[in-house]
Design brief:
Distance between the termini: 63 Å
Order of helices and strands: HEEEEEEEEEEEEHEEEE
Largest sheet: 5 strands, antiparallel
Number of strands: 16
Strand content: 35-45%
Strand order of the largest sheet: 7-16-15-14-12
Number of domains: 2
Helix content: under 10%
């Protein structure tokens, strides 16, 4: 009789241990809230709200190439799924503002990542996950370009995320000033053997944070390899490799050969996709 009872008792014990590790046993609302992700080349910054009044050991950061939140919403993650952080993240250096900030480095540009955060308790249990965000690393920032051939910073490569010469084979666009007008152009205009990227002037205005919600409004039209631009313009650049970038003209300075253009850019190194 005992030999039949033992397996059943062991199964009940294992089930009990497993259920004790489910995230839904945490106090109500005790998990990371309102996660947002800001990407850059090979890195991202995670921000979330702390709303748990219990003592915690820290946070585990999950950046996966497959979604995790829905499948493991109410249970401990399997042992083979490891957090990005080797040690629990204790929180940032400003514990009183209610916002935690984590910098993730060493990622790959052009990969779809699924990002979540969980609270880790002193007994080793994890909370339910935060909201899950899909994010793709790619260069973001502000740069200033000189008129073509007038400095070493007259072209920019999205793949390298750095300045290049306007006639470099990896250049993605350059700037010139002619007859009182400012232009952004594809390198193909300089040399037929260089990259032939296309440009599209967008109809909307606003800040980068506002444009993200309007990406779906962008429809393909008669793209060109050069555009006359003004401060405040948004441009979609479609690269020869099939990737996309958004460019905002922030302003201009100087005259003649000393004239420069200042822009904000966001690069999405995914072929034939348009979202940021």
């Amino acid at each position: 009789m005992m030999k039949f009872l033992l397996p059943a008792l062991l199964a009940l014990l294992l089930l009990s241990c497993q259920s004790a590790r489910y995230g839904d046993e945490f106090p109500k609302g005790c998990y990371p809230h309102d996660l947002i992700v800001e990407v850059d080349s090979k890195s991202m910054v995670l921000k979330w709200q702390k709303k748990c009044s219990r003592a915690i050991s820290g946070y585990n950061i999950y950046i996966s190439e497959t979604p995790l939140a829905a499948k493991y919403a109410k249970m401990q993650l399997p042992d083979h799924i490891k957090p990005l952080n080797f040690e629990p993240f204790p929180g940032d250096i400003n514990p009183d503002d209610g916002i935690e900030v984590y910098q993730a480095e060493g990622l790959k540009d052009g990969l779809k990542y699924y990002v979540t955060v969980r609270i880790l308790m002193p007994d080793g249990r994890e909370s339910r996950p935060s909201n899950e965000i899909m994010a793709v690393c790619g260069g973001r920032g502000e740069i200033e370009l000189s008129v073509r051939y007038k400095s070493d910073q007259d072209g920019f490569s999205f793949i390298k995320n750095s300045f290049v010469r306007a006639d470099d084979e990896q250049n993605d666009f350059y700037y010139y000033f002619k007859n009182g007008k400012d232009y952004i152009a594809s390198p193909h205009n300089l040399n037929g053997f260089l990259k032939k990227n296309s440009l599209q002037l967008l109809s909307f205005k606003g800040e980068p944070s506002e444009i993200k919600a309007r990406i779906k409004e962008i429809k393909p039209n008669s793209d060109t390899d050069r555009l006359s631009v003004s401060a405040g313009n948004w441009i979609r650049l479609y690269t020869a490799e099939g990737a996309s970038a958004l460019i905002k003209v922030l302003g201009f300075s100087g005259d003649g050969n000393n004239r420069k253009i200042r822009i904000y850019y966001a690069y999405l190194p995914l072929k034939d996709e348009m979202w940021f």
